[in-house]
Amino acid sequence: MCHDVFISHSSIDKNVADAVCANLEKEGIRCWIAPRDIRPGDSWGAAIVKGIEGSRAMVIVFSANSNESKQVMREVERAVQKDVVVVPFRIAGVKPSADMEYFLSATHWLDAMTPEMDAHLDKLNETVKSILNKSSPPQDPVAVPAPQPASTVPVSVPETKRKNKGLLVGVMALLLVVLGGLWLFLSSDSEGVPTTEYPAVGDGDIRIALPDRVIGAEMLDVNVLGKSGEKDYIVIGKADAQDRSYLVKANVEGKESVSLEAPDAEGLYEVRYFDAEKRSVVARKALKVSAPEVTLETVKESLAGTEITVKWTAPNNKGDFLAIAEKGSEDSKYVQYAYTNKGSPTSIRVPATEGDYELRYISAQSRTAWARRDFKALKPEASVAAPKTAVAGSDVEVDWTGPALKGDFVSVAEPGSEGNKYVNYKYVREGQKLALAMPVDAGTYEVRYISGGSYLIRDSAPISIEAVSVEIDEVDEVEPGKEFSVSWTGPGYKGDYIALFQSGDTSGKYLSYKYAKKGNALRFTAPEEPGTYELRYISGQEKREWAARPLVVKVAEEGGN
User: Fold this and answer.
1) Domains plus CATH for the chain?
2) Strand 85-90 vs strand 110-111: parallel, antiparallel, or unpaired?
3) Which of 96, 159, 366, 537 has an alpha carbon 20 to 30 Å from 132's alpha carbon atom?
């Protein structure tokens, strides 16, 4: 299986999806996320399908955007068809569409609509871990009674006058042979693995023959001598573990030989033949597993968030990957990873947070590190420059310098807030000078340069936001159903509009609206029902009310047109 989790999201919610991905991968959970994991030249649709089918779970970042996305709907439908567990991570209080509700009605939802996003991400990590642990293939342990000690083979000794002495010499010679063989086994390395016939061991009815030594994760051929039973099988387990505990299993019924993938961690193991009818081990043989020769060659340090190229030599078994992990962490824990299936060299992204790390070659079978070397992620330098004051809702020009790494962005945020908290943002890839929309509320804010992925604040500059001046001119009483003109003064930002409401209405539902355009009077049609109404100027950003003016619709005069 290529990945653990497929992350489905609308591109508009990319920042949240990236945060979900980063938090899961910090826990050693391999994620598939677009567009990161779609290789250049690959078909987008085919890559999505392959990513879903190669995952054990799907996390959908659920919002108004993903609820309306046909692409997200297709991804969820595909996951359900392939029995991939779907975990909705709801970041907005939106009712699911009929199609979405059909597929997710029986699914437990995780709500992340309150500000404590870190706590929500931790809860998501726990949920995903629980799902992955439940879906891991069981070892199918079989209750087998401990084998009886092997019976000794009687040896015929000729009668001599020095019978006792001869017996002692024979025993000592036999002991020397056994000790010598054991010493050779323990002290030998992986080179020179015999390819000729191997001595068969077993109870006489069933015997097995195989090499004494093998390289980790290699295929091991075990020859079977004798007639196998209907449900007999062969396993590989740790040498010091109980017979019922094993790592690899293969059914042997009617076969003269079977192939098993050797464990990838070096050490002493045992190959055992289980007779299903006797419910016991009838043949066993010691096996030494040696780690393969693996090398890693790359730079010693690089800027956080950049990509480095790694040259390596290794078996490159299916699913093997390179990883960059925190020093001292378990082999299964990593910050970044890249598969080695395309061969050496392989590109891998440096973690977004500066510090001391370790580059590792990881065997896919048990996520054992076959090679490792120290690596340092350096802190990138960055700066931002913006005006000291600005009007609420206006665009200001922000100049920046920095590494412009993938995902880096400039934002405006409240002072003291974390890097992943902001009012508005723009990716630095959009240009060296960015037009950044300011908040609609007056106050003190910060313009920042943020590292993508880590949300580290690389530089910041204070900016004071002044209240915007907006006014709707007074309107004379109007007759029901008649047109009237509304004049106003204000910024006329993109998306701003003037709307007609029932007086005192707080639901946000307007009766009619017109987009605000500078220098133009707006034409409205009065409601048919006489009464008091209200004209309001609404900002396109945050839908904030900036001005209001009452409107009276009078009773129509008798005989009026």
Assistant:
1) 5-135 (3.40.50.10140), 194-289 (2.60.40.2840), 295-378 (2.60.40.10), 383-466 (2.60.40.1930), 471-553 (2.60.40.2840)
2) parallel
3) 96
Over residues 91-101, the pLDDT tens digits come to 888 888 888 88
- Of 53 and 383, the structure prediction assigns the larger pLDDT to 383
Bridge partner list, 191: none
User: What integer is the mean pLDDT of 15-33?
Assistant: 89
Length of the chain equals 561
Strands (E), 226-266: 233-238, 248-251, 257-261
Main-chain phi, psi angles of 179, to 5 degrees: -65, -40
Q: Number of helices (H) and strands (E), helices first, in the chain? A: 7, 38
HSE on the CB side for 236, CA within 13 Å? 29
Question: Which three-class secondary structure state does DSSP give residue 399?
Answer: strand
How many CB atoms neighbour CB 353 within 10 A? 18
**3-state SS class at 457:** strand
The 10 Å Cβ neighbour count of residue 341 is: 13
Identify any residues that bridge with 165 across adjacent strands, giving them in sequence order: none
Half-sphere exposure of 288 (CA within 13 A, CB side): 15
- Beta-bridge partners for 471: 489
Residue 482 burial class via C-beta count within 10 angstroms: exposed 0-12, middle 13-18, buried 19 and up:
middle
The structure tokens listed for 121 are 């991400």
Q: Hey, what amino acid is at 381?
A: E
**Among the ranges given (113-122, 142-151, 222-231, 363-372), the one the predictor scored with the smallest mean pLDDT:** 142-151
